[in-house]
Amino acid sequence: MEGSSCLKMGIPLLFFFFLFMRLFGVINGDRSQYDECKASRCSHHGPPVRFPFWLKDQAVPDHCGYPGFELSCSEEKRRTILELPNSVKLLVKKINYTSQEMVVRHLDDCLQRQIVNRNISATPFHFTDSIDVSFFNCSENKSESLWHWAPTPSTCPPSDTVYIFPSDYSLTEVNLTSCRKIFNATLPKHILYGENEFSMNWSNPNCRNCEAKGKQCQRKKKSNSTEPKIECIPKPAKG
């Protein structure tokens, strides 16, 4: 009877022991995944860099970043840099992971040169508030009815006067003598008003709900899909 009684008492203890070990393993597994992909910065004042972004200067596991979200740290001032196609570099000022937006500014103050080289269609990013415009290079000054693009003399090469206006503007109402069209472009509206800072956003990967719940997004380590899949993991309790 005594042996039977001890056996009955031992079964619940054994059950709770295995339950504890299971929970301990899950917690440590979550912490391990979180520590692998914890945020980093280029400087104390720089924005936190974490999934989907990653710093190419640091060795991080593949699941901690997403294709197209590579950032780097500048050598001179340890600033956070996003490089677009054609070597256009933007300074990343802020990143909002819940709304999936970031505030950037040009490193090169010659905005005309930056715009000629800009092409974000091949990137995951979009201008938050944009407008389609046309650029014209004119050898003579034109009417104020056209939006005037004034390059900064100290940073831009000498050139003719460049005018810019919305692409849907009626060309029949303007005098384009001595002008030639350079290109069409989609621009952040802020740049048209002389501001060098604007915002960009991304839709994929979509981690808004995960971030809003206080959890963390990352790529699945094992996936048979050709497109990276994401998962939402809980952040480990502090302590």
CA-atom Rg in angstroms = 27 Å
Mean pLDDT comes to 76
Q: Give the overall form.
A: elongated
Terminal Cα separation, in Å?
45 Å
> What is the H-and-E element order?
HEEEEEHEEEEEHEHEE
Unreliable spans are 15-31, 150-154
Give me the count of strands: 13
Strand content: 25-35%
* Biggest β-sheet description: 7 strands, mixed
Residues in helices, as a percent range: 10-25%
Question: How would you summarize this macromolecular structure in one to three sentences?
Answer:
Helix content is 21%, strand content 30%. It is of the alpha+beta class and 239 residues long.
What does this structure look like?
- It is a single chain.
- The chain is an alpha+beta fold and 239 residues long.
- Helix content is 21%, strand content 30%.
- The protein contains four helices and 13 strands.
- Strands 1-2-3-4-5-11-6 form a seven-stranded mixed β-sheet. The protein has a four-stranded antiparallel β-sheet with strand order 8-9-7-10.
- The two termini are 45 Å apart.
Keywords:
seven-stranded mixed beta sheet; elongated; single chain; alpha+beta; four-stranded antiparallel beta sheet; 239 residues; 30% strand
How would you summarize the topology of this molecule?
Elements: H1 2-36, E1 54-55, E2 70-73, E3 80-84, E4 88-96, E5 101-106, H2 111-117, E6 125-127, E7 130-138, E8 147-149, E9 161-166, E10 179-188, H3 189-192, E11 197-202, H4 208-212, E12 216-219, E13 230-233
